[in-house]
Amino acid sequence: MFRLLRLLFSSSTGLIVFLWFLTSASGKSLKVVTSWLNPQYEGKTFHKVLVIGVAQDTAVRADFEDKMAVQIARPGMETIPGNQILLRPDPHAKPDFDYLRAQINSNHVDAVIVSRLLRVERKVTSVPSSTYIAPFPYYYSFYGYLGAVYPVMYDPGYTREDTTVRVETNVYATSKPDGDLVWTGVSDSFNPKSAKKVADALVKEIPKRMEKDGLLPKNDSSK
After folding, report:
1. 3-class DSSP assignment, residue 3
2. What's the rounded Cα separation, in Å, for the pair 94 and 84?
3. Helix 58-72 vs helix 195-213: angle between axes, to the nearest 10 degrees?
């Protein structure tokens, strides 16, 4: 787990570009496109779960971790936002994995949830210009034909840009020295309006998929 976390944190610079795209795009919704539950952990109950958002922007990270921790909390399971026990005062500094391991052990964390940006895709579609002619019931009459085709409607065409933001969320059990993959899910956000919209949709949809896959029990407190 710690080797993978090292890779995740080292790639977090891409989140700056991620946030830039989120700010400049128009919005649709988030969809979990794939997920997988390790059958060895089916029905497994975790008691203390740490939530980590891989981001250099500490405000964005903290907001995501706080909200996700609330969403996945269940009776008998304590959730800890990463910003409460993991100090990262310098967003450009490399994480101290000895410190991370010590914090996980000292806080008796038995599972870790990590979300990170996978990629941002931009697709530009050009819609060509078109000419629309009024209905032609009078084609067999010269004057009827001329009267029908004269009022031509012209569409000059346009260019449409679509943005897809893909985020990966993994759950690891800490029972093994390097951690063990319990669950993984990949979500796509289409033309998101803002970083907050993506984060809010993520913390709403990911716990639902975890419930569906049998990783989390149903949240009876939700109405």
Report:
1. helix
2. 18
3. 30
Cα gap 184→182, rounded to integer Å: 7
Q: Kindly report the pTM of this predicted structure.
A: 0.71
- C-alpha 175: how far from chain center: 27
For residues 145 and 132, is the Cβ–Cβ distance under 8 A? no
Q: Please, what are the domains in the chain? A: 2-122+163-213 (3.40.50)
pLDDT at 23: 38
The pLDDT assigned to 16 comes to 36
Whole-angstrom distance, CA of residue 104 vs CA of residue 128? 56
Strand partners, 130: 155
How far is Cα 80 from Cα 50, in angstroms, rounded to an integer? Answer: 5
Q: Which ranges constitute the DSSP H helices of 92-194?
A: 97-106, 142-149
